[in-house]
Amino acid sequence: MSRKLLALSAAAATALALTACGEAEAESETTDETAAESAEGAGVCAAHEPLRFSDTGVEGLETLVLEFEDFRAALEEATGLAIEFQPMASRTAAATALEYDDLDVLLTGPAEYVVLKEEADAIPLTGVTRANYKAAIFKRADSDLETVEDLAGKQLITKEVGSTSGHLGPLEMLDSAGLDPNAGDVEVMPLSDTHIEAFVTGDGDALGSGISDFEEIQEALGEDGVEILAEGPDLPNDLFIARVGLGEDCANYLKEVLVENQEVLLEAIVQTGENDKYIGSEFVDATDSDYDPTRRAFEAAGFDQYADLPDEDEQ
What we know:
The protein is an alpha/beta fold. It is built from 10 helices and 11 strands.
């Protein structure tokens, strides 16, 4: 090889080395900047560490760990903050914990949020969408009901008081149809886990429940034995909330982290197999006004004072 070619080869190798070095330095600088930004963001919440997390739908530490340990670890990594569990026995316990700074972040449903906002001024962080999350009113195939308005003077069976899709959702549908259960327009019969069974055995003129229960009702009455009288609109999302004592800056940081890392965080929630309702979910903006339909349902149910809604352990 000639000296000229050797010189060119050496120059090319040097250029490649310098380019690789520059790219590595740039990547390192970007990583350092990201880490610095994360640390700066976490700093607005540092005074509240460790942040305590819970879910109003889960009772007991053992179950909370089973369903959310992967999420807790993922949230800890994403925020750069220490996160620990704080199990809540009920919605009432969660309201007290939020008010007295014993709980920081909570995953909850629309009905629970309305009460927690009223009692503890909870801050909505981000909504969690749920596929096919809506209420419906079902009728037997041989019923002469044609519209929700036809339920005037009839009996509607629902799920237990406070269930978003099984009780409050159907009542909001009645309200939208101009029917007021409080004025005696419709007799509403809330039942617990027996609402479908009662309807199948002949009780009530119609059944209010989640649209996702349609298949179970069909299995009990036969595919041709039940029909959907009316389908409600999409219900407000489940959501993460924060206690007001964390402050606006910390709440905004948590909101940003949840949204920016939603793919990892949602995978951590569903991979345990205990939270299938969140398969295919997204983290979306959540504002207090999103839950006004739930408030109207509370009022249709006779709970103008939202905190008067019975807790599960009171029914």
